[in-house]
Amino acid sequence: MATPVVKLMALPVEGKKDEKVVRWLKHYSSAQSILIVGDGDFSFSRALATAFGSGANLVATSLDSYGALICKHHQAESNVRELKKMGATVLHDVDVNNMKLHTCMKMKRFDRIVFNFPHAGFTGQETQLHVINSHKELVRVFFRNASNLLCPDGEVHVSHKTGQPYDRWDIEQLASEYSLVMFEKVGFAKGDYPGYNQKKGDGRKCNRSFPLRNGCTFKFRMARKESEDESAMYCLVAAMAKMSMARAHDNVTM
């Protein structure tokens, strides 16, 4: 397995000679404010904090209470403890149905909002219509809340299996109901996030992992308004006209 690459980038700090190092792990950086929703045993959040050398930019959440969490997941207690040591905000009892109203989040806006492999629980076979509809409703309310917590240029990332029956969740359609447009879909590799352990999270086998075959990260942004598109087109046309005039001037003076 290839070793995940942690990219480093030095950013100048205004008014100071020294530079601030920004660390990257895959799609995420220590310069972004990141909300991680429903993080199982909090191992994904810990992977990011470890790579960044700090959790100060992270808000990591679970649907379970802390008591229920540590009963379900053997590594949750140590993961939560380490996250807090690294300065992360860790929240429990956070329901996607109303997370935009949560006391610790309603005044915040995030650069990235991440929900890895959302699942509404085991109430039947994954191919059954009522099960698919319950998963879709979970994702729908997530998008509804996430759209209210996102920075203007922020992104919502949902990692999800592809193929049948998972394609029937219609994630792109659900996102579009809240003006979120998919701009990229990339393969999800567990090895990119050292220490991450995806968990079932429900039922007797809640602490067991599940296969991530054909997993992808779907990336969404808020749809641009027509006025913004027109402004961008105007700037592009003006820039092209300026370049054309410059070339014409060069040809005359040669």
CATH class: Alpha Beta
DSSP strand count: 10
Strand content: 15-25%
The protein's oligomeric status is single chain
Backbone shape: globular
Biggest sheet strand line-up: 6-5-4-7-8-10-9
Q: From the coordinates shown, what is the CATH architecture?
A: 3-Layer(aba) Sandwich
Q: What structural class is derived from the secondary structure elements?
A: alpha/beta
How would you sum up the major sheet? 7 strands, mixed
Q: Specify the CATH homologous superfamily.
A: Vaccinia Virus protein VP39
* Residues in helices, as a percent range: 25-40%
CATH topology description: Rossmann fold
Measured between the Cα atoms of the first and last residue, the distance is: 58 Å
**Domain unit count:** 1
> What is the CA-based Rg, rounded?
21 Å
What is the number of helices?
6
Mean pLDDT: 86
Extract low-pLDDT stretches.
none
| Order of secondary-structure elements | EEEEHEHHEEHEHEEH
